[in-house]
Amino acid sequence: MTKLNSIFFAVLLSACAATSQAQVWKCTTDGKTHYSDQPCAAKGEQMRPQSLQSNVIDTSADRAAAERAKAAEQQQQANGMPSSAEAAPSNYCPSDRDITAMETKVSSISLSPDAKRFVQDEIRRARQCQKGQGSYSASDWNVSKQAVDAQSSLTGGADARRRAEAMHSAANVSEGDRIARQREAEERNAKRGGLNYQAPLRDR
């Protein structure tokens, strides 16, 4: 290797080192120590070179996780399974305006005690639905609306109540348990009332 080539090679190595390392000098001037990126004018020494770190955030793990999740969802769709967004059950609920209409209905003096109690229960169930309880569809609440409207008629109100309660029992497990307990209590009260019944004197 010629002398010129040796010099060129040394310069090239210095340039490469300068791009990856920072050179620092520890200098002493008038008894005070300071640091500089230039050689000391007086007394001083060169510090050990420090490698420069790139200021880049490694997001490879996040990208890998996202790719795995996407691949899993594609596999579910290929197997005929609904995606996570499609699997979430929908819950249709009456609006505040619908609830206000029922509140107006329950204030009617023409309703029987049983009819009024039923409409009050429907208001409570509608508010529970708005809070996320149960799994209803629009057709479910159409059954409820028809039952509420039927409470003003002289006939058919009881059958409409039973249809609505059957719908609620299917759409809301906790409400179904409540309805079942209420019916059991009504049956016990009816039996107790029959046992305590005494015929009027004119029938004896």
What tags apply to this protein structure?
about 10% strand, disordered C terminus, mainly alpha, 5 strands, elongated
How would you describe this structure to a colleague?
The chain is mainly alpha-helical and 204 residues long. Among the domains are: 13-51, no CATH class; 96-195, no CATH class. It has eight helices and five strands. The strands form two sheets. The chain has a three-stranded antiparallel sheet with strand order 3-2-4, with no helix packed on it. It has a two-stranded antiparallel sheet with strand order 1-5. A hairpin with a 2-residue loop joins strand 2 (25-29) and strand 3 (32-36). Helix 6 (138-150) runs antiparallel to helix 7 (157-171) and helix 7 packs across helix 8. The longest helix is centred in the last third of the chain and has 23 residues, at 173-195.
CA radius of gyration is 42 Å
Instruction: Give the neighbour order of strands across the main sheet.
Output: 3-2-4
How would you describe the oligomerization state of the chains in this entry?
A: single chain
Count the strands? 5
Order of helices and strands: HEEEEEHHHHHHH
Report the principal-axis shape.
elongated
Kindly estimate the percentage of residues that lie in beta strands according to DSSP.
5-15%
Approximate helicity band? 55-70%
Please identify the structural class as seen in this structure. Answer: mainly alpha
Whole-number mean pLDDT = 77
Q: What's the total helix number?
A: 8
Question: Low-confidence parts lasting 5 or more residues at pLDDT below 50?
Answer: 199-204
Termini separation comes to 138 Å
Query: What characterizes the major β-sheet?
Result: 3 strands, antiparallel
